[in-house]
Amino acid sequence: MFISRLVVLALATATTAQAQTGLIAGYQPRTDVDSYLERDLVQKEFETILGSESCASFAAGKTWYQGSDGDYLRSIPTNTSPQAPEYKEYVNWAGNSKNFHKQWVTAALNKGAVAQGEMVADFGLFPNDPFQSGECVGFEESAKKATSYVFNFIETVQLMEQAIKSAKNGCVDQQVDCDTALQFWDAAVAIFVGSLEGEKGRSQTNGKTHYTLGNKRCRNFKNCGPNRDEGASKDRISPVNTQIMAYFAAGQQATFAGDWALMTDYKKKISAKMAVPWIQGTLRYAWRLSAEISRANDKETSNTDPLDKDTGLEVLDPALPANPIAPPAADADYSVLDKEVAEGGTFALGSVPKLWACSKDAAAAVWSQLSPGQGVAGQAPVNYQLIKLAFECNYKCLMTTCDEVGSLYDGEDKDGVAVSADSNDTKDSLVDIRNGAKTCSDKLFGTDPKGLSKCTKPKKATKTKCKFLLGTPGIKKRNKPEYFQKTLP
What is the pTM of this model? Predict the structure, then answer.
């Protein structure tokens, strides 16, 4: 009888093991979420069809997205009730449109325009590429970067919200089965990471999810690795991703216990950290579209003062006391490449709504510079220092820091020679900080990498400089530190 019981137990254990997905970038799910994990293959297929950057492949990609093959992408978010506050930030920014992300993609694929709340863009700007890198590349990048990263974010936070709802509806103190809540939480991890990243989460940036984006951007900003000082190795995992995966693991335990309040705190933190690679991507392409390449004396640092159009020196503009960031000279050297305009605008689609939740003024400043067809990106030099300052002044509200975002290196020395981020045998010490792109000082801005509990007031000079970028928050009280501090110690 005892042996029989052991056999039954062994079979039950084996069945449970088969019903459990394997490691996801080191995270051990407790449920079977294979179907969620493999949904990144849908994005991969979409990008493969778009692949050649020709108008023929773009047309094929449009047909694919609008047909039955694109059903999954067009269904995101697959769980809409309740609506996660983190998703609502974007919805409210876009004039209360729950489909803002799909409206963006549809407009890009139709080579048209979109005007929904603050989300105003005109893809009719493309093609506008003197280097002829592809007449349809601007439309393509605007569509696929949104489906890969913005759609991924929405699905991730909505699944976490569904897990919290399930926990509230009867999963309490480990006394009631919490498998449904756990499956939703595990599914959020599966969507965030994707199958292409593998069990260890080191695809060498070949994945198609937000997790992959984090690993790409930390290399551009040379803040990968435990010391936040590496950029060359493709095997390094972004410290932001490490934080997010740690929050997911802790949130899983909270889900097991049915502690929906603690789950909510982890969800807020995960959402906040997911914005970091978006901010980095926004800054990366804003720099390329700006006149910073011509900064006098190859200066790395900037007090976010403008450049004099004749001397190239940094000066305060007395004619703009309320907004000390003067626009760059119109005849400066800057990129108008469709690909870079599209990427800058689509990364802003991810970062600006979060910024809007903190400050409508800061968000408007960034969006007016980077959104396609607004008269700046692709047509005139983007004001990188204004964009950089708009984010820096709101880092505390965004729950990030100067150090966490970092300085822009972009894998090149100042002569434009790629010496990092392309192979594992390069030396990070050869990489130069881009002109004017050195990160801010957390001490001056009153933020602290160790947590909001250690934050202080910004220095007076910094507060004055930020005054015109600290307007009304889009979400009431969203700019208060206690927004993140509910249950967590």
Answer: 0.89
